[in-house]
Amino acid sequence: MLSVTEAEFDCPTAYLNTATHGLLPARAARVLTQAVTEMSSGRLDMNRWFERIEAARSSYARIAGVPPGRVATGTSVAVHVGLVAGSLPAGATVLVAENDFASVVNPFVTRGGLRLRTVPLERLAESVDADTDLVAVSAVQSLDGRIADLDGLAAAARTHGCRTLVDATQSAGWLPLDHGRFDYTVCGTYKWLLCPRGVSFLTVPEDGGGLRALHAGWASGEEPWESTYGPVREPARSARRFDEPAPFLPYLAAAESLALVEEAGPAAIGAHDRALADRFRSGLTSLGLSFVPAEGAIVSLPGIGETGAKLAARAGAEVSVRAGNLRAAFHLYNTADEVDRLLDALSALPSDG
User: Fold this and answer.
1) pTM of the entire structure?
2) Same structural domain for residues 240 and 297?
């Protein structure tokens, strides 16, 4: 466990399931408790709460490496991707990776009138061509932890003049990434950024990237409190014009969680997380168990999902099962002892050899 987080987490299990949902830091839980009390007693201060939403936006912008004016708020990746899909011209071609997370792919299907091309992840960059209008991909695959070739993708997109959309949900917080290299990035923050569900961010180019403000309400006006009735006469000049109205409680906690991630530092978190994942991979090799080749914080073991998860649970370790695979995810609150606990549990499995 990183020292900066020792006072923030007190989980009784070896929680190795951040790829499903991160743990909420103590500071975020305290703010939520206070806010609920304020709401129930009629002492809520909306102006202060809106200021905390902006603090969350600014904190995320620093993690993403872009100005706050390029960050829009929302509640889910699917909504953000739907905004991008809804802004594409009829007949546009969208390139995606096989078995990527549904929220990255399905909005382009339900939009209708688009051509969807699907290729293996490792062939994504080489499959970009002159007919490609947008490439959409998760930086880290939810299914098995593989990391996309984002350098290759960015280069191919520049060569062929297409736009890019990167989902950072499984990477933001431990895999440093310059979001400004891509036209759009989206991120659900309830995993590695330790926020409650209901907080997501969208980054856009300075000129808005051709998006239409489909969710624009009063808060998306340049002067929100002067935009509460009738048409919004002046949309925000920043990415705030693409905001989906932010729910108070998740964002109040998010401001605290994102501040913690900043204090620890994504680079330091990434080094910690990868070291634990490497320790786990090394141990699996010693046990003769196979895993999906990857170099990140998520390790996936094919074909042993339910059996492995039961062994882990008996040992007090929390993991997940995806498409029959056992998936373990290592984050800033995990320790080497917890890795070894999971390895001891899995030693009861027959080796692949």
Assistant:
1) 0.95
2) no
